[in-house]
Here is the input.
Amino acid sequence: MIELDSVTKTYTLGQQRIVAVNNVSLTIQPGEFVAIRGESGCGKTTLLGLIGGLDRPDKGTISMNGEEISQLADADLTRYRRDQVGIIFQFFNLIPILTVAENVALPHSLQGKSEREIEARVHELLSDVGLVERQTHYPHEISGGEMQRVAIARALINQPQLVLADEPTGNLDSRTGHQVMETMARLSDRHHITFILATHSSEAASYATRTLYMRDGSLSSGET
Ligand SMILES: Nc1ncnc2c1ncn2[C@@H]1O[C@H](COP(=O)(O)OP(=O)(O)O)[C@@H](O)[C@H]1O
Ligand SMILES: [Mg+2]
Here is the structure.
């Protein structure tokens, strides 16, 4: 379970202070698929970054299964990010000189598992996202929707408890976006993984089990 209590994050640019996340409190149950919807600039990416331990709040607390991640030492925060969180980005962020299978394996191989273990896990994930036939292809040889499904498989390689997806359909056409969202919803359901989706798209958010609305750094449960 993830709990945010009165979380605030402010950026300072010269004289200007921008309250990107403003006093946000939120509880997410294991296996939930939560969409955070809002216009560009409302604070979605900042909020995901705080939950994923990429950044720390100025105020408030964030805890995962009772452990306060906002208080972890740097090394422990790095471990939390690596072991418990998977991230999916708008622009896929695949490595162009690595094959599909190598991209999926990358976060895993950094942890010193055996070749065979990694191969089996990569195969299982690629079959989950329907891309076994593409495993020896390079990113430039597959479509945008396929790239995003590779990124989903990569995000799951370390069996994270939590997957964060930041505008995952933002660079895809509508039909492909639906396929990508369907894949995420299915995996969340089947493996009981908690997904948090940040999106401006009502279509993408429709795959979530719960939608929250964000505006000027604040969250609400209804559309305003
Ligand atoms: N690193 C940063 N430094 C200064 N301001 C930032 C930074 N990142 C985001 N912001 C500002 O914080 C606000 C929220 O941004 P962001 O979290 O990226 O929103 P969203 O993902 O909803 O578009 C915006 O006003 C943005 O300009
Ligand atoms: Mg963003």
